[in-house]
Amino acid sequence: MFEIRANHNTSRKLLRMTFIWVLWGLSVLLLLCAVPTQGQQPLFRSELLFPPMALHNHGSCIVECPNGDLLVSWYRGSGERRADDVAIYGARRRHRTRKWSEPFILADTPGFPDCNSCMIIDPQQRLWLFWPLILANTWESALLKVKVSRDYQRRNGPPRWEQDTIVHLKPGPEFLETVQRDLDVQWGPYLQRADPAGREQLQKERDRILQMAADRLSVRLGWMPRAHPFILDGKRLIVPLYSDGFNFSMMALTDDWGQTWRTSAPIVGAGNVQPSIARRRDGTLVAYFRDNGPPPQRVMVSESTDGGLTWSSCRDTDLPDPGSGLEVIVLQSGRWLLVNNNTERGRHQLALSISEDEGRTWPRVTYIERDAPGEGAGRYHYPSIIQSRDGLIHLTYSITLNRVEAARYGSGESIRYAVFNEAWVLSRAEAR
Predict the structure, then answer these.
(1) Cα gap 158→127, rounded to integer Å
(2) Domain range summary for the chain, segments of one domain joined by +
């Protein structure tokens, strides 16, 4: 009896010691993973996805696939406002080789321009591609389309699409009611500051928007994506949209993964377009907008506390914006990054603004590109930014090469890819 008990007690001690060692190992591993920037060496690399060319290459979007590959989309053609050869292209960067594939076509509607793509991967690991088909070479004639794929990682070329459909948008009567309520409030300050000639021009623009808001076809067409869609709590897909005709924004929402769609109330403002969404810890959604309105031009912001159905009045931040695309992301560290052309005129510099208080203030900035304005400067715009699971930050943007780079690589347009870590962003940050 004694011998049996002794063996039993010894086994229990061994189990206890093994359990303690496992816990200790896990604790060390978690500690190492929990400090992504302390002691990290700054890292930055960039490259062109393809050689510069005369064709227009613009409007990229980047996503990380579940297997670690990166996928980028953009549109290419002779000019979407005058030509019908514009298509959505893609390129893939394999995680193992870290090399970009040759571009391939993601979407092409023969005889019509396809533009401004954006992508997201949902909790079921399906790839979604949204883009506007331009019916009559005007932004007001845009028709929102979507493709969905489960087979997009093993293939070397384009995904095998299982869905290719139109997103039918049908804003309700609250659309006109919201426009009538909010338009004068938003345009009022500009009307007060304008001289007589400017006031007359603004009044005409106001009347035009009100007339459009009362027309069913104008309300249902012309909505385009730009920044990444947003998935709320793994259940609701929100696609930020904007209209060049109305010169403001709206959200498309689905709670059944595209079987049915509804729209938010319009986010009325003086030129607030191309929204990008981030979420605060308290659940508030915050949308930042390009400023297409009268000067002074600033990044604009609005908030939603009901999951994106309604939004607060749009207001200016203190971040300059020359009427160019932007994106915002929340890093694993809790910091927010907003990437845009932080100028009032020109797209000769591209910057990362840093927030430590969930987008309320942006006291520091790090520059990705910074040319002196004027002849010979490059154009760096329409950024798309993500943070991958390993903590690295990936950025793509449209580029027209400056005089120095054109002498080396050739003149024209391309898409540039940059990868860096948070330590690099912080090491180069300067006060705004």
Answers:
(1) 12
(2) 1-34, 35-431
Cβ atoms of residues 163 and 148 within 8 Å: yes
- Which candidate, 79, 77, 141, places its Cα nearest to that of 107? 77
C-alpha to C-alpha distance for 51 and 27, rounded to whole angstroms: 47
pLDDT tens digit sequence for 5-59 = 334 444 444 334 443 333 334 333 333 333 445 678 999 999 999 999 999 999 9
Give tens-digit pLDDT for 272-306.
Answer: 999 999 999 999 999 999 999 888 899 999 999 99
Lowest mean pLDDT among 79-88, 280-289, 307-316: 79-88
Chain centroid to CA 292: how far? 17
pLDDT of residue 19: 39
Return the structure tokens found at 398.
Answer: 């449209």
Task: Select the CATH number that applies to the domain covering 35-431 from these four: 3.40.710.10, 2.60.40.10, 2.120.10.10, 3.90.950.10.
Answer: 2.120.10.10
Answer whether 333's CB lies under 8 Å from 36's CB.
yes
Residue 1 pLDDT > 60, yes or no?
no
Residue 223's closest CA among 82, 116, 105, 122? 116
Cα of first residue to Cα of last residue in the chain, in angstroms, is 78
pTM for the complete prediction?
A: 0.90
Residues 6+ apart with CB under 8 A from 109: 133
HEC secondary structure over the chain: CHHHHHHHHHHHHHHHHHHHHHHHHHHHHHHHHCCCCCCCCCCEEEEECCCCECCEEEEEEEEECCCCCEEEEEEEECCCCCCCCCEEEEEEECCCCCCECCCEEEECCCCCCECCCEEEECCCCCEEEEEEEECCCCHHHEEEEEEEECECCCCCCCCECCEEEECCCCCCCHHHHHHHHHHHHHHHHHHHHCCHHHHHHHHHHHHHHHHHHCCHHHHHCCCEECCCCEEECCCEEEEEEEECCCCEEEEEEECCCCCCCEECCCECCCCEEEEEEEECCCCCEEEEEEECCCCCCEEEEEEECCCCCCCCCCEEEEEECCCCCCEEEECCCCCEEEEECCCCCCCCEEEEEEECCCCCCCCEEEEEEECCCCCCCCEEEEEEEEECCCCCEEEEEEEECCHHHHHHHCCCEEEEEEEECHHHHHHCCEEC
